[in-house]
Amino acid sequence: MDNLAGIILAAGEGTRMKSRLPKVLHRLCGKELLRYPVELLGKLGVESIVVVVSPSNQDAVKALLGDSVQYAVQQARTGTAGAVEAASSVTVRGARDIVVMGGDSPLVTEDSVRELVEGHIEGGRQMSILSGLVQDGHGLGRISRDTGSQQGVNAIIEYTDDAARAGQTVEVNSGVYCFQADWLWANLGQVAAGGSPERYLTDLAGIASRQGDLVAAQPVDDSVEVLGINNRVELAHLEDIQRRRIRERLMLEGVTITNPSSVMIDDGVVIGQDTVVLPNTMLLGRTVIGSGCEIGPGSVIRDSAIGNDCRVTSSAMEEAVMESGVDVGPFSHLRPGAYLESGVHIGNYVEVKESRFAAGAVMGHFGYIGDASIGSNVNVGAGTVTCNYDGREKHRSVVESGAFIGCDTLLVAPVTVGAAAVTGAGAVVTKDVPAARLAVGVPARILDRRTGPN
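Now predict its structure.
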C-alpha cells in the first residue's frame, strides 16, 4: 500500500438526520461514523488522509480527530467532485493512487478496500469502484457495464435517472473508489454541473470509459457493505447489522454469548476467551474484559477494565477497574474512579466512587464508599457510608489494612481508621481512630479494645 493517499468526504449537511449534530458525528456501535473510514485507512497503512469538511462542521470534526488527519474545507455545496477538488491542495502530490470514500458508510470492511486497491494497482486501472449486488438499491447509483463484459464499466447511473429498476437485483455503487492520482487530477475538471451547482464524482466513470481508460467495478462479498446512512432509520438498521457482526466475531474468537440478540456490544470492546456474556447485558465504549469472566445478566459496563476470572452480576460500571478474581453484585454500581484490586468482593446495592479497595477487602452489603482508600483485608459492614462532601469540597476517608468497619458506620471525612482498628455498629466517626483501637457511639469515642474507655 505504498504511495497511497486517502480522501474522506465529510462535508455533507445531513439534513435528513434532523439533528444539530453533523451526520458524520452520529454514533454507530459507540463510535462516530467518521471514525470508521479513518481507522480503516489507517489499518491499510495510508499515512496521508485528508478529511473534507464544511464550514459548519469543521470545528466539531477537528475536535474529534485532532491532528491524526489533514483537513480541507469545501466552502460551497459543489457535490462530491467539488469535495475532492477541495482536497487537491492538501493531498500529498507524490501519491500514486488515491482512495476516496464517504464518511457515512461504516460497514465497508478493510478486506474489501484492500482487495479493491490491490486489483486496481495490479490491473493498471485509472479508476476502480467498490460495488455490491442489492435488491432494488433505493437511492444508490447503478453500475452500468459494457455489454458482455464482467470488468468494463461504462457509467454510473444515478438512482433518480434509473427509477425503472425498482424491485430488481442490481449492482450499485458503494461510494468507495480508487483512482490513479495523476489521472484523477487531470480529469476532475471535466466533471460538469447539471441543473444545480453540484458536480458528481460518479461522472468520472463515464469520462474514463469514453476515453478508453481502464475503469472497473469490484463487487463486495456481503452487499451490506455498500449501505450508507441518510436518516436515523438507516442508522438504526446499520447499527443492528454491525452489532450482529461484533457478536459473531467475538463468539468465533472464544466468547460465549448465551442470548446474542439481547446483548449490545460496542465496536471498541475487547473480550477474552472463555468469558460468558449473559442476556440483557451492555458492553460499551472502550471496555476491556479478560478471560474466564461471567458478565450479566443485565449488567451495563462502559469504558472499564476487568481482569481475568471476574464476575459482574446485574450491576453497572463506568470508567472503573477490576483486577483479576473480583466479583461484584447483584445491583451494585462502580462509578468513575472505582478501583478494585485482586480478590475484592463487592456484594449487593453497593456504590463505589473515586475509591480504591486493596486486595482481599470485602463489602458484602448495601452502602456508599466515595473518595476513599480501603486497605487490604478490610471488612466493611452493611450500611457503611463515607460522608465525603461538606457542601463545598470533597474529602477523603482512609481505612487501613485489617480494619473492621461495623454495620451502619458513618465515616465523616477527612478521617483515618488505623490498621486493625474496629468501629462499632452505628458509630459516627468524626476523628481519626488509631491502629488497633475501637470507636463506638455518636459521635464515636475511642476505646482500648482490651481495657475499655480511654
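The two ends are 78 Å apart (CA to CA).
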